[in-house]
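Hi all, a correction to my earlier message: I attached the wrong file for Putative spermidine/putrescine transport system permease protein. Here's the right sequence:
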Amino acid sequence: MSRRAAAPTRALAWLPIIALAIFILTPQVSSLTYAFFRSDGTFTTDGLTGLADSGAIVAPLIRSLVIASLTVVVLVGTLVPAVVAVHLWAPKLRSVLGILCTLPLVIPAIAIVAGLSAVLRGLASQGRGSVGMQISTALQSQDLPLVLVGTYVVLCLPFTYRSIDSGLSTLPLRTLFESSSVLGASTPDTLRRVVLPNIAGPVMFSAFYAFALSIAEYTVAATLSIPMLPVYLNTLSSTNFRGSITLSVLLSLTTWLLLAAATVSASRFGRTSAPASRKETTTR
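and the right structure:
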């Protein structure tokens, strides 16, 4: 009797998951069907062919890949040492750093880019040839818009900080640094060869998440009039609608795959990194 009573309960528990899956997958399946199938049901690659023939996608694609890669490097290269330093030498500032890193959750991206635009206009208003004008021009260069790198790093902070902070909280960090110091290792060596292997999961999650956000972000790039891949996708819809839907599907699938890889790598590297780091510390 109890099993019979539990069956409807289990079915009801799956209803929200099924509803959410339908809500998420229906637009994706519809877009995929339109992108690769004609109205008579025959398969077509006209959308992909149109994108390849025009060649206009190459520059936005390369620009987006470069900016996404730079975002990952800057995010990991600055956030990991900062969080380690706070854990080791300034634990009282941990709550302050946590609040600062989670602020982008409550500040809309459009508000961030509006403030950023005001700063860039202020620098440019100093006049032609001034240092401010040169900085503003360099940050907004169409070839390498570094302003997007800083903005995307800020947008990634809420989730990546929590991931790295949680990973470091499980480690005897001070003991690791003191033991490495006794064995003659410098602070950078300890960070690279002992700490990073122990938080490989959170670091990989941060890298994949930052890349996924950077490659698919539209609001900041469009507001600053920088032709990134999502901006190109929006303009493409007026001339090649099937091609824009095809590109949208591919971009969406890429983002989902990156987020899935972030989740898988966080758990897999988290399980395998600890034994490797202990072996590394022993051999030293």
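Sorry for the mix-up. The chain is about 80% helix and 0% strand.
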